[in-house]
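Problem 12. The chain below contains 395 residues. Write out its predicted structure in token notation.
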Amino acid sequence: MSTKDFIEKDYYKVLGVPKDATEAEIKKAYRKLAREFHPDANKGNAKAEERFKEISEANDILGDAKKRKEYDEARALFGNGGFRPGPGTAGGGSFNFDLGDLFGGAQGGGAQTAGGFGGGLGDVFGGLFNRGGATGGPRTQPRRGQDIESEVTLSFTEAIEGATVPLRMSSQAPCKACSGTGDKNGTPRVCPTCVGTGQVARGSGGGFSLTDPCPDCKGRGLIAEHPCMECNGSGRAKSSRTMQVRIPAGVTDGQRIRLRGKGAPGERGGPAGDLYVAVHVGDHPVFGRRDDNLTVTVPVTFTEAALGGEVRVPTLGGSPVTLKLPPGTPNGRTMRARGRGAVRKDGTRGDLLVTVEVRVPADLSGKAREALQAYREATADEDPRAELFEAAKGE
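Solution.
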């Protein structure tokens, strides 16, 4: 993501929430939109896929308190025209202070910032301003590796318990043939256009200049006199690797997991990008899920429901539990087996919600039929629908 995109994109509008939305409101809006535009629900719809990526990007920023603060500050500072020249900049002069100092000290060194930027906000905005028109001496800066997106399909049990899965990924990495220099002899020269900075300035008025990637060296700061045949002088080549990735317990279908530093390798000592893994979870023939709780429907006999009793209930990956049915348990009643659900973020478990389903036998033996006929005669004076008809009359 470019600095310009980071500043100009209105992530609040993307999610359809106000700027003072709470964390819960943002989460709710994201889940609703993610379900609507998820690629699995819109096969072959390129617009829906692009919309899903946009929604995920907005949630990645606004769903993280630190990133959201950085984003809000950046938008407030630059989104509506940015700084205006002060008294000391009359006549179109440049700023006499370093915005890298302004932002760099406020952020943790090496911390991942919004939109996948490495380092503090000083790294994001430090190159925006050309103070006094000077470009400085030749310097080739480290470049952060690209972020990689992948997906994995887990069984229901793997999603609840967590799993380590192999992921084969392709990404851009330093070319092995030229050691990432882009020159087959390993001796690239400093780009004369940008003097090794990888950026060129363009005037935007207001006493400062914005920068763009250098068109001649494509932002590398170096030009290969003898381009490497493997990477065509880019210094980057396609690389495939298989990585064992640990998916934490309790993930949900459609969740997007971020693994810091597991993306494409950086260039010239720069940090690696991040790996984003979209998780798909299969169904289970017996159990369902409701937030951090698991659900199961257990059939019981008429006599168990009427007279009460103890019922054994299966659990996911564990020994059965025994629940006590009180006499007169109605069909559809839900009981709770605590601590037998999905794993929460804090390591505790949700509950197993057990719904009772009273089964009516399709075939009766002679003895069972006689018993039921005797029960019907004993309860002949009871009419379970009397209150229904009385209520239907209205006032």
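Discussion. The two ends are 66 Å apart (CA to CA). Students who got a different answer should revisit the alignment rule from Section 12.3.
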